[in-house]
């Protein structure tokens, strides 16, 4: 890790499932020191939504003027590792955002996402990208708490990458290992290879699931079960110890699926040789043995680094996430995945304010001018279309002629055959379209299958050239990749209206039967603001 910062002190806050924790990391002559540890539990977490702000308010007051990093609990983060073609930053961002739309097709606006490329010398044409997403409301609540602790807020990072940052700093980065963080509401796993994250996965069960099992088995409240769970670890409560053993056995049975996800596309020689456990719950009796048996690799609690001095009473396995986040803030913030960045406070002088307002006024004038020009262009285009229809229907008169104008304007969307032709040009040879519907508004809904996810992404990228694309559903289906896409075409039909209006079926009405004395309608009498619809 490159030392690009001169900070000798950094703070970290962790918003876990059972408590809010805080620590200070200081650079020393022979390494680092972690101290000033404090935590505020969330005692009502079984009966109400955790109140992070109230819990953070219980922490002892500190002068947090140094950089501050915040860790978001793994139960609040969606992790995905995808493989994409090698591309420049701008193209890569487009591909990543389209992937996020596939992962969150109906709720994308409720999430904030970040990503980081995971370079691998064994990959030449493809690259791996780690995606992290969290709910906007959770991120806003955490950012608000951070604002209270440090003016300007804090960088917010997912917990699992922060934990990996701590591990690769103090231990053999070349050794392939599996990091497992046993939290209160979830268990997070990350495979580490050559000092880099390979894949992440989260199992929706942790220490709280053990507590709930004990509560159900013994017929007590979760608060009482939590107390007896801690006693069971010391073998002072046989009934609770038996229930805890049953809970750990059931929990361990769900780990292989998450572990299998972490091994996807991983070369056999690079697979983890052991599992390193983090989190206070990982030290419960029998946990390491159960993990080892479930995953078929040795498992043990994380040891203390030789060059990290810990405040009395602390252990590295319980504060690894905090230390990793603070270390990243101290060494190289750009190397960390950030779901939210700290706001830098800059003094705004008179000159700066003048420039700001001058820029705002210039932008406003430019926007008004652009909108006015677009309005004029649209009015001019429609007027040209109307005149074109009059030229083609010169032998008609009165209401028939006026109906021809209206019919033409209502066909502002592309014709169905034109739609099919353009979609066909964008499709690969392996695509099978099982259903296509076309609305009068210009919206097309496509259903079908492709060979794989990458071909689906290529197809989406080409469709964006035709209009606005939304991937409504996408999922593997046996050896195919099934999709459902909404496409709203740009109104290109009018572009050729002046040159070929007669080619539109609805613009050439049948021969007139109206009397020749019927008054003609001139183009000037046709209202320019007549509303247009879509259709085909």
Describe this structure in words.
The protein is 37% helix and 24% strand. The longest helix is centred in the C-terminal third of the chain and has 43 residues, at 350-392. The chain is built from 14 helices and 18 strands. The protein has helices spanning 52-57, 89-103, 136-149, 159-170, 207-218, 222-232, 238-253, 255-262, 287-295, 316-331, 350-392, 398-410, 416-426, 453-463, and strands spanning 9-15, 19-28, 31-41, 68-72, 77-85, 111-118, 126-135, 155-158, 177-182, 187-193, 196-203, 275-278, 299-301, 308-310, 432-438, 443-450, 467-477, 480-489. The chain is α/β, with parallel strands linked by helices and 536 residues long. The radius of gyration is 31 Å and the shape is elongated. The strands form four sheets. Strands 8-4-1-2-3-14 form a six-stranded mixed β-sheet, sandwiched between helices. Strands 11-10-9-12-13 form a five-stranded mixed β-sheet, with helices on both faces. Strands 15-16-18-17 form a four-stranded antiparallel β-sheet. Residues 345-351 and 492-536 have low confidence and may be disordered. The two termini are 60 Å apart. Helix 4 crosses helix 10, helix 6 (222-232) crosses helix 7 and helix 7 (238-253) packs parallel to helix 9.
């Amino acid at each position: 890790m490159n030392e690009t910062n001169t900070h000798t002190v950094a703070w970290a806050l962790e918003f876990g499932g059972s408590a809010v924790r805080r620590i200070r990391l200081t650079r020393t002559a022979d390494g680092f020191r972690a101290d000033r540890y404090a935590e505020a539990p969330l005692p009502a977490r079984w009966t109400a939504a955790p109140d992070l702000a109230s819990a953070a308010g219980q922490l002892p007051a500190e002068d947090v003027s140094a950089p501050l990093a915040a860790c978001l609990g793994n139960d609040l983060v969606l992790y995905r590792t995808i493989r994409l073609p090698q591309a420049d930053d701008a193209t890569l961002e487009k591909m990543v955002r389209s992937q996020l739309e596939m992962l969150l097709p109906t709720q994308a606006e409720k999430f904030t996402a970040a990503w980081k490329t995971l370079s691998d010398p064994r990959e030449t044409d493809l690259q791996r990208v780690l995606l992290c997403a969290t709910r906007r409301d959770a991120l806003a609540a955490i950012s608000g708490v951070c604002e209270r602790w440090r003016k300007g807020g804090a960088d917010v990072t997912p917990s699992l990458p922060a934990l990996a940052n701590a591990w690769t700093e103090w231990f053999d980065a070349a050794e392939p290992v599996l990091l497992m963080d046993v939290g209160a509401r979830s268990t997070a796993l990350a495979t580490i290879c050559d000092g880099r994250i390979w894949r992440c996965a989260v199992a929706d069960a942790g220490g709280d699931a053990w507590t709930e099992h004990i509560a159900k088995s013994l017929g007590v409240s979760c608060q009482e079960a939590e107390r007896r769970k801690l006693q069971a670890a010391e073998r002072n409560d046989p009934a609770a110890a038996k229930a805890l053993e049953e809970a750990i056995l059931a929990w361990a049975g769900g780990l292989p699926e998450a572990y299998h996800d972490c091994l996807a596309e991983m070369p056999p020689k690079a697979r983890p040789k052991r599992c390193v456990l983090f989190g206070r719950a990982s030290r419960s009796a029998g946990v390491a043995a159960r993990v080892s048996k479930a995953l078929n690799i040795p498992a043990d609690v994380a040891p203390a680094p030789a060059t990290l001095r810990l405040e009395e009473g602390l252990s590295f396995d319980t504060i690894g996430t905090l230390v990793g986040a603070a270390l990243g803030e101290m060494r190289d913030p750009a190397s960390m995945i950030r779901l939210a960045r700290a706001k830098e406070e800059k003094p705004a002088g008179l000159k700066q304010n003048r420039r700001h307002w001058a820029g705002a006024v210039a932008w406003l004038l430019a926007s008004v001018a652009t909108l006015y020009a677009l309005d004029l262009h649209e009015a001019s285009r429609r007027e040209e279309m109307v005149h074109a229809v009059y030229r083609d229907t010169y032998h008609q008169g009165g209401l028939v002629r006026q109906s021809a104008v209206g019919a033409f304007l209502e066909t502002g969307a592309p014709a169905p055959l034109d739609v099919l032709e353009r979609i066909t040009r964008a499709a690969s040879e392996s695509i099978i379209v099982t259903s296509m519907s076309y609305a009068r508004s210009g919206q097309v809904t496509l259903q079908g299958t492709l060979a794989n996810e990458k071909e689906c992404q290529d197809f989406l990228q080409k469709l964006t050239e035709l209009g606005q694309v939304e991937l409504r559903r996408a999922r593997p289906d046996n050896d195919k990749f099934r999709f459902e896409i909404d496409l709203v075409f740009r109104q290109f039909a009018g572009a050729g209206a002046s040159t070929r209006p007669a080619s539109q079926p609805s613009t050439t009405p049948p021969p007139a039967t109206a009397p020749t004395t019927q008054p003609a309608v001139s183009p000037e009498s046709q209202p320019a603001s007549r509303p247009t619809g879509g259709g085909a």
